[in-house]
Amino acid sequence: MARHGGKILADQLVAQGVRRVFSVPGESFLAALDGLYQSGIENIVCRQEGGAAMMAEAYGKLTGQPGVLFVTRGPGVTNASAGIHVAKQDSTPMVVFVGQIDSHHRDREAFQEVDYRGVFGTLAKWVAEVDDTERLPEYISRAFHVACSGRPGPVVLALPEDMLSGLADVPDIAAPAPAPSAVSAEQVQAVARMLAVAERPLVVVGGSQWSEEAAADLAQLAEAADLPVAVTFRRQDRMANSHSHYAGDLGVGGNPKLFQRLGEADCLLVLGARLGDIATGGYEALRPAGPLPKLIHVHPDPDELGRVFRPDLAIAVPAPQMVATLARMAPGGHPERSAWRKAARAEAEAWRVPHETPGKVKMEEVVGWLSDNLPEDAVLTNGAGNFAAFLHRYYEYHRYGTQLAPTSGSMGYGFPAAISAKLEHPGRVVVCLAGDGDFQMTLNEFSTAVQHGAAVIVIVANNGRYGTIRMHQERHYPGRVSGTDLANPDFAALARAYGGHGELVTEGAEFAGAFQRAEASGKPAVIELRLDPEMLSTTKTVSEMREIGLKARG
After folding, report:
1. Tens-digit pLDDT profile for residues 151-206
2. How far is 176 from 469, CA to CA, in rounded Å?
3. Can you give the pTM of this predicted structure?
4. Which of 1, 207, 236, 524 is least surrounded, with the fewest CB atoms within 10 Å of its CB?
């Protein structure tokens, strides 16, 4: 029986196992909206395409399945580019469907026309435009395969209006078949041999494709081989932070002693991470030109292996597959290794001891309260800003799937990600920690949260500035403040105006009660923390940073 393209598209999504999509509607894909209506797939309508894209990306992080986004042409899809970039750098599977102009009007600079291949060719794994209604199942099947293959990432598929409204009688294509494990016995034995002779090994864990099972395998491997484990930027839920073999995170503002240990290791087992500039301290803790420790690099994309650092052993498989096989082998550790591992753990624990910041509301105390009181399965989200360093340093993650944060450093990510997490896990506590500038990037999605019943709790760290930029400004141009001060709304009142719950905290002792009331409200909630203007980072005030800048300038 003939179906219009929008119905074929929606039926194909059902075949792919899609339960929920995120969208901002446009006239360019009305037939697709009709198809979604008929399919029963949940359509989360958002307020701006950037927030919608971040919700779809967060869904991909949480589930391991492609997050699906529908946006219109021109300004719609270009608004979504920030979320597509997050998916690219964070290796998150994502499929973006874009309404396109009628194919008969192409190349005339028609209303909102965009050359998608030109615009997104460097942001997406694959960009294509469907020109034949009958080929929709083929293109969609390929999109889902590409989004999940190798190093996962975003795919952009443009859909001309006439292709969506056209009729065709074509069968659906089933979802991608599971890919069997590709780890060979020879590869595992080679890794085990190199680890066995290492006195100062360090495991560096990152990338996507992890799971609770993989996290358990990692802990088992670390215990069996007495290995210290470091995680890369914003991948702290890959291992319980309380574990005796957890050594901390190689992130922005991370523990200097861990970066030093990275350079002192005699063997690095890099699992899933790209080993980029953040994980290597700006390529200073590890220099591409060496000297380097023995490097075992396990990554799903063969083109990543050797791209920056020359590995002594390169294995192109998903890291969790290698970890599972190694854990079953239970390789022993070098007899001199224990002291190295224990020292790494002691440094990680010392790093978590709070450094007092100025003011009546202290971020280290707020994050410490969250760490001590939230359930182990609570989901914590954040965007970008100095406020996030408090979360990275002082919050103790216990389980996989409890951290949603952009390794790309995208502001505004935390709030839409929290909405997506709450929709996926309505019974779990979901908390977004946001800065005042960060939150204002996507706070318009508050009405999305209210409309769809996503009772997230947003904690807004309000210090009246873009803190990260001010920090660098004081270091390099001390006292010459430009473009970093913010005039902010009453965030608690704004939450109430949207129909949510709002509270203002001006004394540290008020926070626990405010959080409990926010949770009890059953509504999307904002708790605004009014911070001391001198508070700048986990270790420095504005005045201290300015003094550092002045001394550096002589």
Report:
1. 999 999 999 999 999 999 999 999 988 877 779 999 999 999 999 999 999 999 99
2. 44
3. 0.95
4. 1
- Cβ burial, residue 335 (10 Å; 0-12/13-18/19+): exposed
Among candidate residues 394, 332, 387, 388, the one with its CA nearest the CA of residue 368: 394
Quote the Cα angle for 61-406-527, to 5°: 100
Is the predicted pLDDT of residue 419 greater than 80, yes or no? Answer: yes
Q: Which long-range contacts (CB under 8 A, 24 or more apart) does 128-132 make?
A: 128/156, 128/157, 128/158, 129/100, 129/157, 129/158, 129/159, 129/160, 130/157, 130/158, 130/159, 130/160, 130/163, 131/103, 131/160, 131/163, 132/163
d(CA 442, CA 413): 8
Tell which residue, 82, 8, 201, 70, has the closest CA to residue 442.
Answer: 82
Distance CA 235, CA 215 (A): 11
What letters, b where the CB count within 10 A reaches 16 and e where it falls short, cover 384-418? bbbbbbbbbbbbbbbbbbbbbbbbbbbbbbbbbbb
Residue 135 token pair: 């080929």
In the block, which residue shows the tokens 């997506």?
420
**188 Cβ contact list (under 8 Å, min separation 6):** 322, 325, 326, 329
Indicate the pLDDT class of residue 335, thresholds 50, 70 and 90: confident
What are the structure tokens assigned to 234, written together?
């914003």
Residue 181 DSSP symbol: P
Contact 467, 438 (CB under 8 A): no
Per residue in 86-126, pLDDT (tens digit) is 999 999 999 999 999 777 777 777 676 788 888 899 999 99
Closest CA to 249 of 403, 458, 354: 403
Cis, peptide link before residue 331, omega less than 30° from 0: no
Domains, the chain, with CATH or none: 3-168 (3.40.50.970), 185-351 (3.40.50.1220), 363-552 (3.40.50.970)
Question: Could you report how far apart the first and last alpha carbons of the chain are, in Å?
Answer: 79
**Cβ neighbours of residue 423 under 8 Å, at least 6 residues apart?**
20, 44, 452, 454
